[in-house]
Queue: 2 jobs
Job 1
Amino acid sequence: MDGLPGRATLALEILVKGPVVTEQRIKRIAEFIRPFRVPPGTKVTLEDDYDPAFKAGVEGKQDGKQLLTEGIELLAEYQARLAAQDTHGVLVVLQALDAAGKDGTIRHVMSGVNPQGVRVERFKVPSAVDLSHDFLRRYQQRLPSRGEIGIFNRSHYEDVLVVRVHPETLARERLPEHAVDGHFWKRRFREINDWERYLSDNGFRVVKLFLNLSREEQRTRFLRRIDLPDHHWKLSPHDAEERRYWDDYQTAFSQMLSHTSTEFAPWYVIPADRKWFARISAGAVIANTLIELDPQYPVVGPDAARALQTTKRQLEAEAPDGAAADPFQERLAAGDRGKV
Ligand code: AMP
Ligand code: MG
């Protein structure tokens, strides 16, 4: 069956196990994520423009669960096609303040996909070796390959966020004096945009998610981490210290969104005060990216197709007495594709 063109294979899948990818689902996803997209070229003020508690008319967790399940199914289907086509890669960038739910979002959203096709990379404080190179190098080294979905849990955007909020971290980058002038941040935004354009031109789609948490919800989540002993490991004194820079981070995030949401690599601001809603939304954005790429199962050429038929005849001739020539054909006729 894998020799069939993508659409035909898909049509068969729908026939056999019910629709995974339907026009209606595709449209619903595109509409659902529209309010989250930061229009390229617009100036964003996080506080005024995006509500961390927004839930887009989805009433509660139960409705949400259904949407998440659908999203996960879609992701699994498209990820299989992305890997089979082996032409495009997808880079999902996740940024947020502490306790906004980056880890949980990755765990839930990716729960249905084949782990072989996904690479999760987490970025901490740069090492001495990292600091001996240009700032983009360590991110460049951990990009997804063609056919893969890469997730950056924190990313090159830390270099216009934490580094901007704490100028002493910039000093550690040992840039030449002339590089750190009044246009420094603008230039850094441009360098990031240039890099992402380069990736996009070369077949790697970049999609960026900012999990937008409110100050009060962060306070509650920090307290939860203190009140539950098995969560103690999740909260460091450093997290509480960073919280004191809340306003500086909001400004840095707003600037980042305003300067680096582009047609080829847009930002999506995901309302993160409700974990379930953040997960559905993140899943929907990633699914939408894959839908736009529309990867297809490869179609083998006529020679390879003929070779498959020759092999088929040889295998059929090997059938032991009493066995069907092609036992699988019977199962397929009964609607069983033999997929677990
Ligand atoms: P976590 O993800 O909570 O384990 O924390 C990782 C820490 O590394 C955070 O405090 C980040 O701000 C910090 N970090 C990540 N990337 C950079 C960077 N490029 N420069 C400085 N600090 C960074
Ligand atoms: Mg942390």
Note: Residues 123-126, 154, 158-159, 162-163, 169 surround adenosine monophosphate (ligand 1) (CB under 6 Å).
Job 2
Amino acid sequence: MSIDTLPPLRAVIAEHDLSARKSLGQNFLLDLNLTAKIARQAGDLSSSDVLEIGPGPGGLTRGLLAEGARHVLAIEKDPRCLPALAQIADAYPGRLTVMEGDALKIDPLRHLTPPIRVAANLPYNVGTELLVRWLTPDVWPPFWQSLTLMFQREVAERIVAVPGSKAYGRLALLAQWRSEARIVMTLPPEAFSPPPKVSSAVVHLTALPAPRYPAQPKLLERTVAMAFNQRRKMLRAALKGLAPDIEDRLIASGIQPTDRAETVGLEQFCALARTLEA
Ligand code: SAM
């Protein structure tokens, strides 16, 4: 049984001639039961506006609306998708607004009313760039209450990684400092059309009201970026550009100067960033 009265996605794609374009990272979800399931991972949508990036032919959009989203603002770069999205807007009067453009360039905030949740199945490079932006705003709490995002599984694992694991790095620290991050679903390549080369996973991040440990965002970001840029080096070497007395600062933060970045936890990185405050 379909989740709505609109045509199946295969028919929509055929009708609007939406052959997938590699240059736009187009791998579409065609199973509406699956997109409704992803939408449910985003939490209670009935009292939220949802920002969806990259709706494509609208599979996830329909899931979000069928699951009761108060209002969805969808930003899509490919103009070929707009007629299909207009049909969805007609089926859910007043609940879907579509903007054509590049999500990396558009500021959608004046079209959204808090509380705001973000949901997206995006090409992974655009997704990672947006995630880093959403995790590093000038003020916290951010505009979003939660992010529910599809990534290549390997990227999803980097977001939730713990110290000592191969996937642990800048993305894990940025994500976990001020959010709770979990992998809530994994999907095989066949869930998409055309199937990508690798598996995918949905990550759900909830913004914490305040950071887990105090630190100035810019100092923490700089420290972590430097530490993991040369992740195989001992930290006293990788971070020597941060301060002349970096060894003392590492020790004061509970870090051995001979440690490598991948063994150091969030609390210690925050302590180190605090030693750099003027
Ligand atoms: N959400 C749809 C789904 O799940 O079937 C489509 C997913 S497809 C992986 C990614 C979508 O993002 C495509 O529709 C593509 O055109 C769109 N897209 C790619 N880059 C974008 C950008 N910079 N801004 C907005 N949309 C973009």
Note: The pocket of S-adenosylmethionine is lined by residues 24-29, 53-56, 59-60, 75-78, 81, 102-104, 121-123, 126 (CB under 6 Å).
